[in-house]
Amino acid sequence: MTRTYTIDSIPGDGIGVDVTDVAMECVDAVAGLHGFGVSWRVRDWNSDFYVKTGRMMPVDGIEQLSSGDGIYLGAVGTPDVPDDVTLWGLLIPIRREFDQYVNLRPMKLLPGVTGAMPEIEDLDIVVVRENVEGEYSQIGGRFGAGTDAEFAVQESVFTKAGITRVARYAAKTAAGRGGTLVSATKSNGIIHTMPFWDEVVARTVEQFPDVTVDKVLIDALAARLVMKPTSVRTIVASNLFGDILSDLVAGVAGSIGIAPSANLNPERRYPSMFEPVHGSAPDIAGKGIANPVGALWAAAMMLDHLGEEAAARSLTAAFESTLAEGIATPDLGGSATTLEFAREVRSRLR
Amino acid sequence: MTRTYTIDSIPGDGIGVDVTDVAMECVDAVAGLHGFGVSWRVRDWNSDFYVKTGRMMPVDGIEQLSSGDGIYLGAVGTPDVPDDVTLWGLLIPIRREFDQYVNLRPMKLLPGVTGAMPEIEDLDIVVVRENVEGEYSQIGGRFGAGTDAEFAVQESVFTKAGITRVARYAAKTAAGRGGTLVSATKSNGIIHTMPFWDEVVARTVEQFPDVTVDKVLIDALAARLVMKPTSVRTIVASNLFGDILSDLVAGVAGSIGIAPSANLNPERRYPSMFEPVHGSAPDIAGKGIANPVGALWAAAMMLDHLGEEAAARSLTAAFESTLAEGIATPDLGGSATTLEFAREVRSRLR
Ligand SMILES: CC(C)[C@H](C(=O)O)[C@@H](O)C(=O)O
Ligand SMILES: CC(C)[C@H](C(=O)O)[C@@H](O)C(=O)O
């Protein structure tokens, strides 16, 4: 009897559909080779669904997802619906209700992909981003709407429990990656939450004798990632800082299109969610030229999380060797279509 | 009779002292050549002052500064005093009480300075940063200190008036620089303040027929500044986003040590403040090797603000031609001391 995982796939909008389409086929293929199965429950929860129903997912959407082994997301967003609606209606509730408090964003230079600084050869950075609290909150609103005195406020909320658990995960990650954990902060400018972040990170990492914290101000860190990207291996960052830094690192590695993101509930009480970092890119949607590497890498992270490490390695090796051959989509300077690229990947699975 | 400007100089800590020392001499020299004078009121307000008095500046510090024509700051900060104390005791109150709501941070590739991406040749970016509200606020605090339930909150505050005036300044800046104003936002993740930012920026810039807004999410913008830095000319950003982006842009241009910052009260009701972007760098303080370019560029911005445009141009040309000769401090790969560099600059003033 083969083991079968139930995965909820939410292709979403735009190129989210293009890349998950081909990536799911690659996952099926590698699963077949490694003796397990994936049963996809494809969900049509996207901006069209919103236009029809006034919601990004059904009322019991979270409940529906909760019975699965994982969630595989393409991208959501369309010019017709405000981004805060699409995202706070789907992506963010999934992250929060499933307590996916770690957002893991690895990046390295891939073969055949030219980084922003061509002379750099060994970039290898993991961003461990806090994923459910911090600067992204619903506490706030407007005063005096429409008047000259109008203002808007939003509260950042950092909890000891929330910082502790993400710092612990990051410390474990750093332990296997040289032992230095760069903590992104702004405790000189943001005087209530970031000194607290520093304190709790320091206290948590103290319990890991092999790990030391390198506390770096977010502004200086942004510059350092551009000037000396190889001096950084593992970063722990708040929700907003992790968002910014992971895109920045992807830029240094040459492309947002290759970047994966795992939204993890490390205790596995709830399903985790895997997605490429890129958005829905409405301008190239449906043209068959979207880069599926971010989606494939995210799928490999999902297989790894499910315990199918060999399949994850095979999938990763397959897209890396495809890129190494010079086969790539137009955004990376190649001429392959999404489908052609994926076909090459499939032919390389072992 | 020659015109004399009264400038309050606050060398501050660490290399703040090293760079302002030599930069003030260069300013005196160029003033002499251009027929005006500068009367410096040098203030010893720094971390030592704090250790002695418990304050970063005297109780009537702001009042003392208010009678001057401008403020010239080195850098503040020392390992012995928490950063939030040094900065919220001096830098931030000056910015706020003098309503220096525009923080102007220009950056370009300087001759002889290698940018992070050597193939880029025409980088020229101005960041217009909101400087008195936004994410930096004192509203917030801790709940349940010492308990497991401890959490910290901090409120971001964005006002219509505050966004409008910085957007207007930025629109005027962009009008003279190609007409596209990149507005840094995060309206998909930060749901109260950033959609409001977008709205007010759009409404303000509408009044400038020659300017169009290019609204870019902060994460994508960070990546774009690395991958296509020459596609961006003028940025308007909130306090925090402007802080991060301006350091990032300096990193792209090759060095934080060259970056200047003008804290402007555009209406000239209060003195404006000019400072290099770099910090106090305690590790190299007093060694005579600090890079004075950021301080010199900031001084040139001060002269420009005072209406002494010719002197400003002369000072800028002098440090640029020094760099073009290959004369530079060690951080830029040269072997000049701070003093030697400044002497070269002085000899080139016209
Ligand atoms: C020191 C700090 C509070 C300050 C800021 O963030 O404003 C600094 O980084 C700057 O950019 O001038
Ligand atoms: C879409 C947006 C809310 C989201 C975020 O900032 O978390 C995205 O940028 C990401 O990084 O997954």
From TrEMBL, chains A, B:
<feature type="domain" description="Isopropylmalate dehydrogenase-like">
    <location>
        <begin position="6"/>
        <end position="345"/>
    </location>
</feature>
<dbReference type="InterPro" id="IPR024084">
    <property type="entry name" value="IsoPropMal-DH-like_dom"/>
</dbReference>
<comment type="similarity">
    <text>Belongs to the isocitrate and isopropylmalate dehydrogenases family.</text>
</comment>
<dbReference type="InterPro" id="IPR019818">
    <property type="entry name" value="IsoCit/isopropylmalate_DH_CS"/>
</dbReference>
<protein>
    <recommendedName>
        <fullName>D-malate dehydrogenase (decarboxylating)</fullName>
        <ecNumber>1.1.1.83</ecNumber>
    </recommendedName>
</protein>
<keyword id="KW-0464">Manganese</keyword>
<keyword id="KW-0456">Lyase</keyword>
<dbReference type="GO" id="GO:0009027">
    <property type="term" value="F:tartrate dehydrogenase activity"/>
</dbReference>
<dbReference type="InterPro" id="IPR050501">
    <property type="entry name" value="ICDH/IPMDH"/>
</dbReference>
<dbReference type="Pfam" id="PF00180">
    <property type="entry name" value="Iso_dh"/>
</dbReference>
<dbReference type="GO" id="GO:0050319">
    <property type="term" value="F:tartrate decarboxylase activity"/>
</dbReference>
<keyword id="KW-0479">Metal-binding</keyword>
<dbReference type="GO" id="GO:0046553">
    <property type="term" value="F:D-malate dehydrogenase (decarboxylating) (NAD+) activity"/>
</dbReference>
<keyword id="KW-0560">Oxidoreductase</keyword>
<dbReference type="InterPro" id="IPR011829">
    <property type="entry name" value="TTC_DH"/>
</dbReference>
<keyword id="KW-0520">NAD</keyword>
